[in-house]
Specification:
eight-stranded mixed sheet, about 525 residues, alpha+beta, globular, disordered N terminus
Length: about 525
């Protein structure tokens, strides 16, 4: 008797195992967790003949399961306690659970069905066990399309889950290593910038400019990553320049200027001592070439034209631009954007790559966020309380629509009235307000969103926030309000004014984890 003797026939066994092999190969090619989970869930659904599948991973820091899934090109996240439901039982015991009617099993947690509108019937749930025998989560397939899940299905899912656990474990380790590497790079860069307080933040801004110009120039993800690392580290050679030269505010002598120039060579020498991966092998050269010129009169290599890699030509432009427009320094005033761009144009074909300068300007790659906290665009719902200047609650409104329809905003505008400044004022007695809202951006310092109502600047609103393991009510000050370009509704910006340090750090870390292009998750504010 073979392991799969309960299968209807040998052809079915071979077909199923062949499909599992193909899915396993697809898993091996994914290094992003959200994409990997999508491959696994779609594969499990197909192989088991189920309606839908889920992967719940253990987050021992928060004591929760979490799962990421894609709906309409948006990656969403579900979280619930580790000790709850069928998933909690399987993760705790390591047993496989196969039930025909979920609602007749006391272990079943119906909350997810309530939140998603889905109706669970049959469940097959199995632990994800790594090679080190650690349970990192569970695989769950729901609602067998024909009949119920069989013993054969359990064996199939066992093979599938073993392969999935190894892939997930490797991907989690890979992502952890990336976070560690980037934190070391960032810390090293900030340490160098900190030697001169007036240039603090330079490397971070250069990296942002470089990424935008690199994207505009068509660099792929690997080349962009290499450019980002080189941008963060391009000035690390300044560690070899004496403070009396590096921090001098007056005019440099010729000898001092030569000492400053040596930092590019020091950058190369320092970075050559680091064992970069194959994808980052060019980082030492790119970083050290940020003072090269297209006409060959730069340093330290004196390379001409296309002998300079594209990434180095990009870095040369954005480094100069940030130096020109940096905030006021003891020895110079911040230059206007227009003046800085005109200087770049003057250097086309001599100091800078002409095509890249044109691209930098035409694609407005100089528009970056000069802010402490990273922000992302998301859909969310939250409860907002408008407070008057004497801090008395005037009105409570609940927002919960992912986008604003113009007809809604038009009806909303009918309920506001002009104030003495020519704007519009909040009408606390108007019925049917707040039918929809669109969030533009959220960061650890504030929120920007579209609304049908006017909130006076410097007034306060209260937000009750529920996100991941964060549960707080935060006071916000209105810092910006303007009409939408379409003429209906307003774009409003608020800043968090009384958020605790640990709460802000949690929100910041969560936003960072969701800030890639493919991973813009709806955050829930209630």
């Amino acid at each position: 008797m073979t392991e799969f003797s309960e299968a209807p026939d040998i052809e079915k066994q071979v077909s199923d195992l062949h499909e599992i092999l193909e899915i396993t190969q697809a898993m091996a090619g994914e290094k992003r967790l959200d994409r990997l989970l999508k491959v696994i869930m779609e594969g499990a659904t197909r192989v088991l003949g189920a309606d839908v599948s889920s992967i719940f991973l253990c987050d021992h820091d928060t004591g929760e399961f979490y799962s990421r899934f894609i709906q309409q090109a948006v990656v969403s996240e579900i979280r619930f306690p580790l000790d709850k439901g069928i998933a909690g039982y399987v993760a705790k015991t390591g047993e496989t659970v196969n039930i025909e009617d979920a609602y007749k099993d006391d272990r079943f947690n119906p909350d997810i069905d309530k939140n998603t509108g889905y109706r669970t019937r049959s469940i097959l749930c199995m632990p994800l066990v790594t090679l080190d025998k650690e349970i990192i989560g569970v695989t769950q397939v729901l609602n067998k399309k024909q009949g119920w899940f069989t013993a054969y299905d359990e064996k199939l899912l066992g093979v599938f889950s073993n392969n999935a656990a190894v892939s997930i474990d490797n991907t989690l380790l890979h992502e952890e290593n990336i976070r560690l590497f980037k934190s070391l790079i960032s810390t090293s860069s900030k340490t160098i910038d900190a030697r001169d307080p007036v240039t603090a933040g330079h490397s971070q801004r250069v990296a942002l400019y470089a990424e935008q110009l690199g994207r505009a120039a068509g660099l792929d993800s690997l080349a962009l990553n290499e450019l980002e690392v080189a941008s963060w580290l391009h000035d690390i050679g300044k560690i070899g320049v004496r403070d009396d030269v590096l921090l001098k505010t007056g005019r440099l002598t010729d000898q001092e200027y030569k000492k400053i120039q040596e930092h590019a060579t020091y950058t190369s020498e320092i970075l050559e001592q680091i064992h970069f991966s194959r994808e980052l092998k060019a980082v030492p050269f790119i970083a050290s070439a940020h003072h090269e010129r297209i006409d060959g009169k730069g340093y330290p290599y004196g390379l001409v034209g296309e002998k300079l890699p594209l990434a180095a030509r990009i870095l040369a432009i954005v480094d100069v631009y940030d130096a020109l427009t940096a905030y006021d320094r003891p020895y110079k005033k911040a230059m206007s954007v227009e003046k800085a761009l005109s200087i770049l144009e003057e250097g086309r074909g001599t100091q800078f790559d002409a095509a890249l300068v044109d691209l930098f300007i035409s694609r407005r790659c100089f528009n970056i966020e000069r802010r402490q906290y990273q922000r992302i665009s998301v859909d969310l719902t939250f409860e907002i309380v408008f407070l008057s200047n004497d801090d008395q609650i005037k009105c409570v409104e609940k927002y919960g629509f992912p986008k604003v329809d113009d007809d809604v905003l038009e009806s909303a505008d009918a309920n506001v009235e002009e104030d003495v400044d020519g704007g519009t004022a909040w009408d606390v007695n108007a019925p049917g307000k707040a039918k929809g809202i669109r969030v533009r951006d959220i960061s650890a310092s504030g929120l920007k969103f579209e609304t049908g109502y006017y909130f006076p600047i410097n007034n306060f609103v209260s937000l009750k926030v529920v996100i991941k393991s964060i549960d707080l009510t935060v006071l916000c000050r209105v810092i910006r309000i303007r009409r939408r370009p379409a003429g209906t509704g307003y774009i409003m910006g608020v800043e968090f004014v009384n958020m605790k340090i640990d709460e802000r750090e949690k929100l910041l870390n969560y936003i960072k984890s969701l800030s890639s292009e493919e991973l813009q998750t709806p955050i829930r504010f209630l």
